[in-house]
Structure to design on (328 residues):
């Protein structure tokens, strides 16, 4: 099943705000609907957002500059949106002077290609990453970097999927990932579907389990990687990486090359999305704290390259300081 797909003139997407209770699809017919779906996280995860942005450009064909701006402003950290928008604008430039229906066809061809490539890229990431997974390892992952965060298969979960498929008898610790609970809601749902042995933990249990020797490896996704290898991912990833270093546990990032932002030198240049306070003050519909208090909700953090053993890409596993060669 694909997380995002073009079907009869509409974009069919899994509504990730409904999982794990219900597997429901939304059918996106307009640019405005796509932008809203991205903002409220019916679709999320950097590569899936890249694909959503590409289809968003198809839907926004009547004014591509406006479409590009709206999509770029929808979620600022995941660079895959920018990557996809720029790729679509390049195609639009090549089709300059075409009538709108022809241009739309041309753009759709490219968006379909982006979606198709994503699945193949993830499978390559899975194969490359499985090499760092030894038999019987217990692997920690943060957030959801699975099929739901991509068109299909996943990046960090792609590595886990591949290692499991190779009979490595792995076990996964899925961190619940406050405040949006992507680990509890989405990663647990995917791992259960795939029958991959796993245990759900809250984010603050990571240090304890590492100290007890229960975690052998950490693999997470990324939303934007700077030229020097500093990597932004879901809030809490940095803490997990520092703890991993303290306990001598290898920490890997699994991400497609489209997640590398070759325009920025270090992670300090990465814009961190701040999300609504309500995500922190409530769990579901229930308010969990007093009213009238100060709240922060940065959605991502940056793990400096020195904590990262390797970045697993479709082209192989690279030391963070080597990824700049991938620009070529
Ligand atoms: O806020 P989200 O759910 O979009 O954040 C997702 C992540 O942080 C993922 O780890 C990242 O996008 C990589 S997905 C393959």
């Amino acid at each position: 099943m694909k997380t995002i797909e073009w079907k009869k003139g509409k974009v069919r997407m899994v509504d990730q705000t409904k999982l794990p209770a219900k597997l429901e699809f939304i059918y996106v017919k307009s640019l405005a609907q796509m932008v809203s779906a991205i903002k409220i996280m019916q679709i999320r995860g950097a590569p899936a957002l890249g694909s959503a942005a590409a289809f968003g450009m198809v839907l926004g064909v009547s004014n591509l500059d406006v479409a590009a701006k709206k999509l770029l402003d929808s979620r600022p950290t995941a660079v895959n949106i920018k990557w996809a928008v720029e790729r679509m604008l390049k195609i639009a430039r090549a089709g300059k002077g075409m009538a709108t229906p022809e241009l739309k066809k041309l753009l759709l061809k490219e968006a379909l290609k982006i979606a198709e490539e994503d699945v193949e890229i993830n499978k390559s990431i899975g194969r490359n990453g499985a090499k760092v997974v030894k038999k019987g390892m217990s692997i920690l992952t943060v957030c959801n970097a699975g099929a739901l965060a991509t068109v299909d298969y996943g990046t960090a979960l792609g590595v886990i999927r591949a290692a499991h498929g190779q009979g490595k008898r792995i076990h996964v610790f899925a961190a619940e990932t406050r405040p949006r609970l992507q680990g509890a809601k989405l990663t647990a749902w995917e791992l259960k579907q795939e029958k991959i042995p796993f245990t759900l933990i809250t984010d603050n249990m990571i240090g304890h389990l590492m100290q007890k020797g229960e975690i052998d490896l950490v693999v997470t996704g990324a939303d934007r990687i700077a030229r020097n290898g500093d990597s932004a991912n879901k809030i809490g990833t940095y803490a997990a990486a520092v703890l991993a270093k303290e306990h001598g546990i290898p920490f890997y990032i699994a991400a497609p090359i489209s997640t590398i932002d070759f325009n920025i030198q270090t992670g300090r240049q990465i814009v961190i999305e701040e999300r609504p306070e309500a995500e922190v003050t409530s769990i579901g519909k229930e308010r969990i704290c007093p009213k009238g208090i100060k709240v922060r909700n940065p959605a991502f953090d940056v793990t400096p390259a020195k904590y990262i053993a390797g970045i697993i890409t479709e082209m192989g596993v690279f030391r963070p300081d080597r990824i700049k060669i991938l620009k070529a």
Summary: Residues 126-327 form a domain with the Rossmann fold fold (CATH 3.40.50.10470).
